[in-house]
Write a structure and sequence with these properties.
The protein is of the alpha+beta class and 471 residues long. The chain has three domains: 83 residues, Uridine Diphospho-n-acetylenolpyruvylglucosamine Reductase, domain 2, CATH 3.30.43; 111 residues, 2-Layer Sandwich (Uridine Diphospho-n-acetylenolpyruvylglucosamine Reductase, domain 3), CATH 3.30.465.10; 215 residues, 3-Layer(aba) Sandwich (Vanillyl-alcohol Oxidase, Chain A, domain 3). The chain contains 14 helices and 19 strands. Helix 8 packs antiparallel against helix 11 and helix 11 runs antiparallel to helix 12. The protein is globular, with a radius of gyration of 22 Å.
Amino acid sequence: MAETAPVLSADAVDALAARLRGAVERPGTPGYEAARTVWNAMIDRRPLAVARPLGVADVQTCIGFAREAGVPLAIKGGGHNIAGLAVCDGGLLLDMSAMRGVWVDREMQIARAQAGCLLGDVDQETQLHGLAAVLGFVSTTGVAGLTLGGGFGYATRRQGWTVDNVTGMEVVTAGGEIVRASERDNPDLFWALCGGGGNFGVVTGFDYRLFPVGPQIVGGAVAWSGGDAAAVTEMFHRVAAQAPPELTCVLVLRNAPPAPWLPKEVHFKPVAVVVACHAGALAEGESLVAPIKSFGQPVGDVMQRRTYVSQQSLLDATQPKGRRYYWKSEYLPDLDPAVLSAALPHFARLPSPHSAIFFFQLGDALALHAEDRTAAGNRDARWVLNITASWEQAADDAANLGWARETWTDLRRFSTGGTYLNFLNADDGEDRMRAAWGPNLDRLAVVKARWDPENLFHVNKNIRPRPLAVQ
């Protein structure tokens, strides 16, 4: 006889609400639909209740409630995960969006950010002091998911993964204990949280090491007609190969969005775009991006002196909430001209005006540490290939999923064998988790057994607890 899934009664939800400072939403209440909706419209899940904690005590109460009720527990930071890991069916959704405080210690160059923060929240506060954390490329992404998955951005070439620059975390464990995780305090938990995803506890606060940058940098984007893509990729390869760590380059092959900096006659037509960010001396940055700006006949150019905050939100409009998204991704050991050439036929048959092929530059600082310094690993990665299918209607699912999978099947031959945890889809299984964590996966399973032996935190790319064998 099949087991019956636990059900939350109205009385149980009322009792939880009475114990929290934050609000509780349930089906039929005004905030429920917005709370359960995430960035990727392919994800349509319905939790039995949504709790919005206002502090750590609320988080602790919700964890205890889910554990005792035996229902799934999902944790939503920004809700930007491609696989929809922020929301569950038939359980309790812990929506951290009310916890968005950021405190900057200018002298120590440390920022403490609550787990509901978006990247833009941290950038706004740290840039008041001419400082920045290592964060991602879209300002509406949540810091929690980005960080727990490893994290990379424009500063990775100089500073490493996001988790290479985290000094500590405040964590509520499966047992409801509030602990600090750092290299000194609970170092095994800290190691696992630095790239192991949401498997080990609910992180309520992150301490980020900051570095001087801005407020002005040299950055932006230059676009060329798709007919020039082959020549643009050759130029891009040359510039990127010579770029110092202060300069990070991104190549985007897509159809032109209706952006104001692009003429109307190229909207929705193929374009090759180079995005760049130089966070060193302004004059040096202008010199380094000059070969990009002067190449060929661009159809649009917004590469200039700008604020770091504006650079961090430059790609936001390409990733709006409410579209259907499906990604396939690989780490690359270098930018072999052959992979650029192989990408062009797939670029020529984009099935949607919103889909794209991205090449993000990494390398340099990643290789300064041992592979097992953090759970994120993959320190041989010098590029990220991300194949991003994006479309509007469910009727177009098959065409867009097919394009992404076929493009990935062709281009993955250039991979290091590794992939980025945060870019894994809902249908990516244990083999892809092994690609993301490599040999670190076995150690993660041991840490999981210590901190979450009952696997309360399983609405994620789940690691099965495996105690260390007795010798």
